[in-house]
Amino acid sequence: MTDFTLYDETNAPEKSKALLEESKKSFGMIPNLHAVMAEAPGLLEGYQKLHELALDSSFNKEELTVVWQTLNVEHECHYCVPAHTGIAKSMEVSDELIQELRDDKTLSDAKLNTLKETVLALTRGRGNVEDEVLSSFFDAGFTRQQLLEIITIMAQKLMSNYTNHLANTPIDEPFKKFEWSK
Predict the structure, then answer these.
(1) Which has fewest Cβ within 10 Å: 95, 118, 121, 126?
(2) What does pTM read for this prediction?
(3) Tens of pLDDT along 45-80?
(4) At a CB cut-off of 8 Å and minimum separation 6, what does 24 contact?
(5) Topology given in CATH for the domain delimited by 60-162
(6) Which residues have CB under 8 Å from 176's CB, separation 6+?
């Protein structure tokens, strides 16, 4: 196993220092994921930009949570599932939806379940999706823009989930109460 350093704004590579300062400003702390990513400034910068783009997508808070957590659970990310549980709670997403996602259950809300199934089809099919899945997605009221926005969020989650697998990133203190395993 490779040991990864948890950097902060004092010991990070020069190109990562300002990025970590931005993390601290945005989150009130440097999330351990960002502290690990700082080893590769381009990874951290790309992740931060994709996070910003996800937040600026056309998805509402429930839909965004569905995309994030579906990917986190599918990738079995020990770090991101608890972190996004905390984020979802701060966004006032219902506890029922949060738990259904964490437990990988069929979602009570049919439209959100269609979104979940589309995210899974995209992920498992590596972008190759059956026409029936796409028809259901569009029939549920989602748009082509949103289909493409899922790909942006998939890129974000690939960066974080894979980094966390490699680094076995320690869960941040505020999210330890939401620890998760598949």
Answers:
(1) 126
(2) 0.95
(3) 999 999 999 999 999 999 999 999 999 999 999 999
(4) 9, 30
(5) AhpD-like (1.20.1290)
(6) 82
